[in-house]
Fold this sequence. Notes:
- With 429 residues, this protein is mainly alpha-helical.
- Helices cover 69% and strands 0% of the residues.
- The chain is built from 16 helices and no strands.
Amino acid sequence: MENAFRFRLKQNVIPAILYFTFLSGFFGSTLAYPKLSYLFAYRIFLAFLFFLIFIDLMLNGIELRSFLNFSTFFLIGWCAYSLLSFLWAQDIKSAVRDQVFLTINIFVILIFMYYSRYLRWDVFENIILISFIIHLVVGYLEVVTDKHLWTSKVPLYNLHRTPSTFFANPNDFATYLVLYSPFILGLAINKSRNNFFKKWAAFLSAVLAIPLLILTTSRANYIGFLIALFVYFLLAGKDQKKNLLYYAAIFLVFLMFIIGFRLDFGAFNKGIEMIKIQLSSLVDFSQTYLSSNVRRKLLVVYGLSFLYDYLFFGVGSGNSRVLMEKVKQYTVNVELHNWFLDVLVCYGTVVFILYLVWIFYLLYNLFKIREKNSTLSLPAISLMSSISAFFISSISSSKMIEMRVMWFIFALSLFVLTKSKEEKGEYWA
Length: 429
């Protein structure tokens, strides 16, 4: 009876709770009572998941071989160095805050890897599609009604008809659309699946995501989206390319029909004009009114100067914003608005270089899976496209360390890599 309980706990109960945790992570603090906004569904499921894993490890022990790889060593080392940086951090409260986010998100990544043999990609795929559709529905409701969820800060920015859905701002929502669009594309072109409804739901979702992305006016994510599409098409096999071209042709014919009969009521021209304005603003470095580009440039300059002052060891976990407060009259913003710069300034040169090495390490191993043409080839292509877009999209959001959808991409990457090795009875190094 005890053995049966241990088996069910690891094979059924923990995966089920992990799926719910993953699902609730896409909706953040909106799944909570406003007066207890810190106690939202994701945190409740995550706490329960940690509790069950603790029981599992007590009953069954830990399989060390599952953790003996570069990813584990780097992630745990990053977490340890972040703790060490408390010794020179100016603001311990900010350091603790970021340390909590970093530690929890790293644990989530390791959980995906450790329990990969009991998890199924198709379930993650369904969760991603369902979540994506819900986000699109809410996004279009926000555009039509100009009303937002209680967690959104769009009303504070005095923006109108701008979607943010379950995120705090349009930039975060745009980053989400870009990072998860490759998975939706993968569902649409997967020839091994004969689910007609799912394929067309995925195709329509991919198409309907484009107007919402344009309405976010997130310049970095415009470019990130194009990078994701380009990388996906580049990595796709011949049959997959044919499917992509087939869907693209359908989309273009439909678009020409709509525009030709003026059924879009001028929305297409307005969208093109909006994109032109946003992209042209990328070269606007006017200092008379501190344009966004100038502020971003100053954030980089001051961030690197702080890094230099701390001898390239990093200013300490969560302390970039504390130092930036001192020059706020020049930068306006206190967040670095660049995830890679955030990692460099807060954790130093060594962690930053290892972080880049780790990302390319993941890309290299995912590429090897894609080459083998296994059942995990399409997920690998989606992940590579998403990570490639992430290099640009990560510039958009002000602070990404607490953005679960970003950490989920890396968690899914490790899941796919580990799953691929386990299918052959191997452990990857």
